[in-house]
Each structure stands twice: as C-alpha cells, then as structure tokens.
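new request in #modeling-help
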Amino acid sequence: MNISYVHGLIGGAFIGAAAVILFWFNGRIMGVSGITSKLLSKPDKDFWWRLAFVLGLIFGGYIYQMRFPVAVVIETSGWGLIVAGFLVGFGTVIGNGCTSGHGICGLARLSKRSIVATIVFMAAGILTVWVKKTLGV
Amino acid sequence: MYIFTAFISGIVMSIGLCISGMVNPQKIIGFLDVFGNFDLTLAFVMAGALTITFVGFRLVGNFKPLLCDCFDLPKKNKVDASLVGGAVLFGIGWGLAGFCPGPALVGVGLGLPRAIIFVLSMLIGMFLAKKFLH
C-alpha cells in the first residue's frame, strides 16, 4: 500500500481522537468553521474554549514542524487565495459546517444534513478542480 | 480544565492534519481531481477519522460529558437551501485553493504567508455571512 495512505489512516485516527476528546470532555462537536466563526460574534461563555481550540490548531502545527518535516505546496495565487478563503468562510457559516463538522462528526452521527452537505461540497470541489484544469487557470 | 481539554483537542487535530498530509493543499486538490491525477489519501484519512469518531461517539452511551452537564448537539435536522448553498460555496473555495478551515489554521502555525492570507479572507467571509444571516 502507498505509504501516504498509511499516513492518512494514522493521521485520520488522530483527527478522530481529537473529535472524541472534545466530545467526551466538553460535550461539543468538533467543527472547526463553527468554532472559529463564533469567535467573531460578541464573546459569550464559550469564547475561551473556542479560542483555546483554535490556538491549539495553530500551536500544534508549530510544534509538529519543529520535530518532523511538513510538505506543503500552495500553487494558488494571492488573489485566488483571497477569493477561495472568502468563499470557504462565507459558505461554511451559511452551510453550518466544513470538512470536520459535517464530514467527520456529522457523518459519524449519521446526520442527514451532514451527509447532504458532505456530498454537495465534495461534488462542488471536484467540479471546481475540473473546471479550473479544463480552462487551464 | 474545560479550556485545557479544548486546547488539547486542537493540538491532536493539528497533529493529525500534519501526519495525514491534509495540511498540504496539493493532496486535497489531488483527491478532488478524480478525472486527472487522482490521489486517494483523503479517503483513508476519512476512514481513519470516521472509525474512531463513530465508535467514540457511541461509547458515551447514556453518560454525561466529563466536564459539563450535557452534550451540545446541532438542533437543526432539515436539509434547507442555506445548507446546500453554503456547501456549494464552501466546495468551490475548497477546490480553488485546497484549503478548508482546519488545515488553513494549521498552516498559520507553520508560518506560511499564503495560509495567513487565506485565513484572513476566510474570517472576513465568516464575518460578512453572519451579518448576511441577520
């Protein structure tokens, strides 16, 4: 089996463990977009754990990189990143979730909304990559 | 303690995204490129994550969370236009750059200027969507 598939399975297990930790201890669904976007509202009692989760995500990358190599190739232009970032931010708030909240936690809960959302965003992503390649941009 | 466990969850998630290679937009675009250089890694990540999450969520049974009184679960259960429309917009952005919110935030921790640009724009999009919803 391709070694990156093995890394995928192991990394995926860590992602699942993170979702289970937040669920068992805090009683919360691990949806990165929701946790992040709610930090932009007026702070409520949930402000600090949400901030701690987001800082953990950022800090985790920082410490991982000190010990292990991380390969990242970003080919999208600056403007492309601005448009993509905006769509991801806007879309995840309107659609109530992203890859983690819908794609992992929601699917694990067999939520009908999450199953539909996951199929739709994967299809939209596949179509976007195809259109982009076909147009050569 | 409640804040600390959320921090730990974020770190474990971040490490998972690094190990799996999902922090690399090229791997995401490779998965979405089903008609081209298809890269199946994301499917293995989903398999690993879903197995643990599916079992982990069910092991809880009738127990309460360790640090609070009850589970806070999404209350909506109807598929509506906003869910589908939002997923379409998210999917387009995801396909354009290969970043979703988690990996992009990890990218900020890796010190990648391009991830920082993406995250700043994402925060503006989130902010405006909240205005739009009200």
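bot summary: Chain A has one domain: 3-135.
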